[in-house]
Amino acid sequence: MDGSAMEILKWTASIGGMIAAAMIAWNGGRRLTGWGFVVFLGASVAWIISGFLTGENALAVQNIVLFGINALGVYRYLWRKDDPSENAS
To answer: Nearest 5°: phi and psi at 64?
Structure first.
């Protein structure tokens, strides 16, 4: 991957992460929060690819873990039928 494509990938990941964080922080309900986690999944994939291609393995591994956490968020807010906030203690 050439340098300009890598820059586009990194900026896409960065901006995606910022948008996802804003969507979740907005607290606009289950649907918006769930879609925020979907955006986080995409950003994590971009960071994983970028990290491995540039030799930044710590960044890639961190985002593999974050991918799993964000997948849990997608499950809780978009797939699960009950309200996840009712189970929080």
So the answer is: -65, -45
Instruction: For the chain, count helices (H), then strands (E).
Output: 3, 0
**Secondary structure element (H or E) that encloses residue 82, with its range:** none
The structure's pTM equals 0.86
Compute the 3-state secondary structure of the chain and give helix, strand, coil in percent, each to the nearest 5: 85, 0, 15
Q: Which two tokens stand for residue 67?
A: 């991918």
3-class secondary structure per residue, 34-71: HHHHHHHHHHHHHHHHHHHHHCCHHHHHHHHHHHHHHH
* Mean pLDDT of all residues belonging to the chain: 93
pLDDT band at 81 (very low <50, low <70, confident <90, very high): confident
In angstroms, the Cα distances linking 84 to 1, 36, 87, 88 are: 41, 15, 6, 7
Say if CB 24 and CB 37 are below 8 A apart. Answer: yes
